[in-house]
Each structure stands twice: as structure tokens, then as C-alpha cells.
Design a protein that fits this description.
This protein is an alpha+beta fold and about 160 residues long. The chain has helices at about 40-45, 65-70, 85-90, 95-105, 125-130, 135-145; strands spanning about 25-30, 50-60, 110-115, 150-159. Helix 1 (about 40-45) links the parallel strand 1 and strand 2 (about 50-60). Strands 1-2-4-3 form a four-stranded mixed β-sheet.
């Protein structure tokens, strides 16, 4: 709020939010993997949209190349297995591209576009300790090229 005083900040649960106006854009950045009932949250968000509004959402991808590597190395039993770090961050589920899009369909939304970003072949610590800015930017572009194995997936949806 201090950095962006023109932005209205609301601090409450989605289920308790009662907007005074409708929105043309709603961003759910790393929200749906944390909530008890993602379909009901999407239905709420849909009710807050203007007729031509869109929802933009992103979540971690269970099929990320780094998660697949963890399975091969027997650090995880499956791509869908949540790690200690997932639990630490409050994740309740893992999404793959199909299960993510399916929640939008269940909520009565039309998926306009979907994809991925950030090809992440190594752990966060390895990225932080040894990757240059150029390596990170290239990794983002590669994730767009290979969305099924990108670390993050997104959906853009409307009424």
C-alpha cells in the first residue's frame, strides 16, 4: 500500500469478500492451490466479473521438469506428491494442466487461453545460488515454449 497508494488493498478471505463493483480483470496468482474449494472460489470470482471481464490465474505445475526429476531420483513418489516445502507454503493440492483447466470448466467458466512459463530444471536454492539474470530470462521463455513441463501454468478464462 505504501509503494502503490492508488491501489485499493483488501485483506480478507475470498469467501468473506463482498465487492462494491464488478471487475474487468481478476488475478488469482498462486491462490487456487491453497484454498479448500477452488471451484467455489472460481465461481465467486466469476460473479465479480463485468460481462466482458476475465480471470487470470496461475499455479505450480505438478508436471514441472524439476518435479519429474525428483520422481526419477526417488525424492518423491509421484509428480502429484506434495513435498515438505509444498506443505510449508500451505499448498492443499497439486495441479497438472488438465486438472487446472478442469476446475475452470466445473466453475462454469470458458477457458480462453492457457499455457506455462518458467522452465525450472533445478531447485530454488540452486537457482538462487548460481543462475544469472540471463539464465532466468531464458528459462522463462523456454517455459512458454514447453508449457506441459513448465514450473508454472496459467489459465485465462471468462463467462
Amino acid at each position: 500500500k505504501a509503494q502503490f497508494p492508488f491501489v485499493d488493498v483488501v485483506n480478507c478471505l475470498f469467501e468473506d469478500y463482498e465487492p462494491v463493483k464488478r471487475f474487468s480483470n481478476i488475478v488469482l496468482g498462486h491462490v487456487l492451490e491453497h484454498v479448500s474449494d477452488p471451484v467455489s472460489i472460481l465461481q465467486l470470482a466469476k460473479s465479480w466479473l463485468t460481462p466482458d471481464g476475465i480471470i487470470l490465474a496461475a499455479v505450480p505445475n505438478s508436471r514441472s521438469i524439476h518435479r519429474q526429476a525428483a520422481v526419477i531420483m526417488k525424492l518423491q513418489s509421484s509428480e502429484e506428491t506434495m513435498s515438505d516445502l509444498d506443505y510449508h507454503h500451505g499448498h492443499r493440492r497439486m495441479y497438472n494442466p488438465e486438472s487446472f483447466r478442469n476446475d475452470f470448466i466445473k466453475a462454469g467458466l470458458q477457458v480462453l487461453n492457457y499455457g506455462g512459463y518458467w522452465l525450472k530444471p533445478v531447485s530454488n536454492k540452486q537457482l538462487h545460488d548460481s543462475w544469472s539474470k540471463e539464465m532466468l530470462l531464458a528459462s522463462m521463455k523456454l517455459g512458454e515454449r514447453y508449457p506441459d513441463i513448465a514450473a508454472e501454468i496459467y489459465v485465462i478464462a471468462s463467462h
